[in-house]
Each structure stands twice: as C-alpha cells, then as structure tokens.
Design a protein that fits this description.
binds zinc ion; single chain; two-stranded antiparallel sheet; 2 helices; alpha+beta
Length: 116
C-alpha cells in the first residue's frame, strides 16, 4: 500500500509555484503535488487528497455535480428542537459628562436545545 496520494485537483500541476517545479535544464515541469500521509494534521481529513484549500475548491467547482450525485438530497431534513427563552438581569453603561452609570436592563437569551 502506498503511503502517499497525488493531489486530486486535475489542475494542480498548472499552478505555478516553486514547490511544483521538477526536472532540470530545459526539461523542467510543474508536477502535481505529492501528499504524504502520516503527517498527523492531515490524517482522516480531506487534505489526504488535496494539497491545499485552493486545490480542494478547484476540484469541488469542477466536479460539483458529481459530488452532489454521490448523495442526492431531494427534500430537507429536520431536527426536533425546543427553543428556550430566558430572561436575565444585565447592565449596560451609559456615559455622560465623563461619568459612567451602570443602568440595569432585562436581556432575553434564546437557546436551542435538542428535543430528543
Ligand atoms: Zn494540489
């Protein structure tokens, strides 16, 4: 089993960076970036297959229809929730004539909780 992938952006080798230059003399090329696995921040991430965010986004733009076809979504999904509103005493500061006054007011906090 190989311990590396080539970047899956089909245009990775067209991006002009020093890191992609291979060959010598008049035989230089820009080459697709090799991604070594084992670098721990890449493990189990999409960046096992793409050398950076730019290449990932170029791939998604080019193959967006194929990506969407992997798992078509024909209708929305719903998650049951409970919306809770709680009132709490809070303070704001009012400044006038170089003086600050603590003014009480009631704030409302809205939280969304799972209904399950
Ligand atoms: Zn790439």
């Amino acid at each position: 089993m190989s311990n590396y992938n080539w970047c899956h952006n089909p245009d990775c080798h067209k991006i002009a960076t020093q890191s992609r230059v291979r060959g010598s003399g008049d035989k230089k090329v820009l080459r697709t970036v090799k991604i070594r696995s084992g670098s721990h921040w890449r493990q189990d991430s999409i960046f096992d297959f793409f050398c950076n965010q730019n290449c990932l986004m170029q791939f998604l733009k080019k193959f967006r229809q194929e990506v969407a076809n992997i798992r078509p979504v024909k209708q929305p999904s719903e998650t049951p929730i409970k919306v809770k509103k709680t009132k709490q005493q809070s303070y704001r500061y009012q400044y006038s004539n170089g003086q600050s006054n603590r003014v009480p007011y009631t704030s409302t906090r809205t939280t969304i909780e799972s209904a399950e």
